[in-house]
Design brief:
The complex is a heterotrimer of chains A (93), B (198) and C (249). Chain A is built from 4 helices and no strands. By secondary structure, chain A is mostly helical. Chain C has helices spanning 3-31, 44-53, 55-68, 72-87, 93-121, 127-143, 146-161, 171-182, 203-246. The two termini of chain C are 29 Å apart. Classes of the chains: A mainly alpha (93), B mainly alpha (198), C mainly alpha (249). At the A-B interface, α1, α2, α3 and α4 of A face α1, α3, α5 and α8 of B.
Chain lengths: 93, 198, 249
């Protein structure tokens, strides 16, 4: 097991699988209410970040590209979070 | 497995280098912007209809969504491992890992087909309500991207079997890989948005 | 026709691109009340009222746009000529594809606008007629986008294969072109949906794809005009060197 985890790619895969399970657990009433939603979106951001940095191999890419993709990730997650929060607090348009 | 477990010297040389074709990255970024608009449109319409959306969401088979997420994550991992293997000149391993990614991608599509037919058979369609309108549109457009990605993977698999990818010739492989990771990344958003968030 | 005249006509054709863009947005979009466009969820009566209260503008806008949409044709032709030079002269299939794609785009855009002109033609007609005509027009323009997608993909493939020292289009423009062409696909959903962002008045089936189309169109126009200008410069210098040779220098 230890030798497998030396490879950062295996580590990333393991984290992705575990947090996916965590998100599923949250929905199965592990966490309810706004907390559950925010935790789910935090997991989205974490998974996205790992895919961008480790799978797309942008961790060592030129800063411009790393930040373009990370910026997209942050902006999209932030907008979803914002509307999610508005929706949960009962405001209607 | 030990061969790719140790970081190859080639990957150290990739510092400050964009993997693959830079112009294709512009394409990928544009795709991400487009889907970003899809996601925001979904959550924007979700606001104010939370109860109706949640009611329909409960009729989705969440475990099939989970299976599909895991399939795409594993396939993405297989693809990036294939790129690593190519850098280490392990061309047989490249083909094997790509084959694994294709298997996962095909399984994703089969699960998706099951999901769609189950929904359609129980009388749910794109016109049922707003939630299902989004569900079918977003997952449908994503499925088109999966099929495009699978085509790319198959082409790369055939190339890899002929030993065309080595430490000096990874550019094409990296480009296709980036596209496949994008398909994965988009599903990482779609699964929680449609199946989980409430 | 000598080279100078030929190139001058090419330049005029290329400038028809920006001309199309401006007149299309002005007549089809602004004057004919298409920004925002009528929602498919409007009742027949509300839709008829929308026509009656803007009758003059809608008639003038669409009738003018039916003329100016043809600026797309010379532009398509000059692009076909430029593509053919890259593709070679034997069987320029992709150039042909772009050419008919552009021609059919003009027809699709024209036909849909004709239905709206017809709707506005008899204000005394029953409301359901207005609805039928409006539906037909929008479904024509939103479901027949693949002609334009093929036109764009053909142009992009040629651009990517261009080995000239100064290529017609930079590579990133070509990939963006393909992406813009793909961005039309959600518009197919307008065939079934009446509400939401994928209906024909929604952001994802109307504003974004149409914006992408015009974005591609403007970018391509800039590079096509540049290309003609470059050829104008080089066509003058061999003439100069030819005269020098004739003089025996």
């Amino acid at each position: 097991m230890k030798t497998v985890l030396i490879n950062p790619l295996h580590r990333t895969l393991l984290i992705l699988v575990v947090v996916t399970g965590a998100a599923f657990w949250i929905r199965s009433d592990g966490l309810t209410g706004v907390t559950g939603g925010i935790a789910t979106l935090a997991i989205v951001w974490l998974k996205g970040r790992l895919i961008v940095l480790d799978f797309m191999e942008l961790r060592h890419a030129p800063a411009l590209w790393r930040w373009l993709l990370q910026g997209w990730l942050m902006l999209t997650t932030a907008l979803i979070l914002l509307f999610y929060y508005i929706g949960r607090s009962g405001v209607t348009f | 497995m030990t061969a790719i477990a140790t970081p190859s010297p080639a990957s150290a040389a990739t510092t400050d280098r964009l993997p693959g074709d830079q112009d294709v990255w512009i394409f990928i970024f544009a795709e991400l912007l487009m889907f970003g608009a899809f996601f925001v449109a979904y959550i924007f319409n979700w606001v104010g209809n939370v109860e109706a959306y949640t009611r329909s969401q409960l009729t989705l088979d969440r475990s099939l969504g989970l299976v599909n997420t895991l399939l795409l994550i594993v396939s993405s991992w297989a693809v990036v491992s294939a790129v690593e293997a190519a850098r280490g000149n392990h061309s047989r391993q490249v083909a094997r890992l790509l084959g694994m990614a294709i298997f996962c991608g095909l399984s994703f599509m089969i699960v998706k087909a099951f999901e769609y037919t189950a929904k359609l058979n129980s009388g749910i369609s794109i016109l049922s309500d707003d939630f299902y309108m989004f569900y079918f549109c977003l997952t449908g457009i994503h499925a088109l991207h999966v099929m495009a990605g699978l085509t790319i993977l198959v082409v790369m698999f055939l190339n890899a079997r002929e030993g065309r990818y080595g430490a000096q010739t990874t550019k094409g492989l990296e480009t296709g890989a980036s596209y496949w990771h994008m398909v994965d990344l988009l599903w990482i958003f779609l699964f929680p948005l449609l199946y989980l968030l409430r | 026709m000598d080279e100078r005249t030929r190139l001058r006509y090419q330049l005029i054709c290329a400038w028809c691109g920006p001309l199309f863009l401006v007149t299309f947005v002005l007549f089809w979009g602004v004057i004919a009340n298409n920004i925002p466009n009528p929602a498919p969820s409007l009742t027949a009566e509300a839709l008829k009222e929308r026509y009656l209260s803007n009758l003059g503008e809608i008639r003038f806008g669409f009738i003018m746009s039916l003329i100016t949409v043809c600026f797309y044709m010379p532009w398509t032709c000059v692009l076909a000529a430029q593509m053919r030079r890259i593709e070679g002269t034997e069987m320029p299939v992709l150039s042909y594809l772009q050419l008919i794609g552009g021609a059919l785009t003009v027809m699709v855009v024209s036909f849909s606008a004709v239905f709206w002109v017809v709707a506005a033609f008899r204000p005394e007609a029953p409301a359901s007629t207005f609805q039928m005509m409006t539906d037909t027009g929008w479904l024509i323009i939103d479901l027949c986008y693949a002609c334009t997608t093929l036109q764009m993909v053909a142009a992009a493939l040629i651009g990517l294969a261009d080995k000239s020292k100064v290529p017609l289009f930079p590579r990133w423009v070509c990939y963006l072109t393909i992406w813009c062409g793909i961005s039309f696909f959600p518009a197919s959903l307008t065939g079934v949906l009446k509400t939401g962002p994928f209906a024909w008045n929604g952001a994802l089936s109307y504003y974004i794809p149409y914006f992408c189309w015009l974005c591609w169109f403007s970018t391509a126009s800039i590079y096509m005009i540049k290309e003609v200008r470059r050829r104008m410069v080089t066509s003058e210098s061999p003439q100069a060197s030819g005269r020098l040779a004739a003089a025996g220098i």
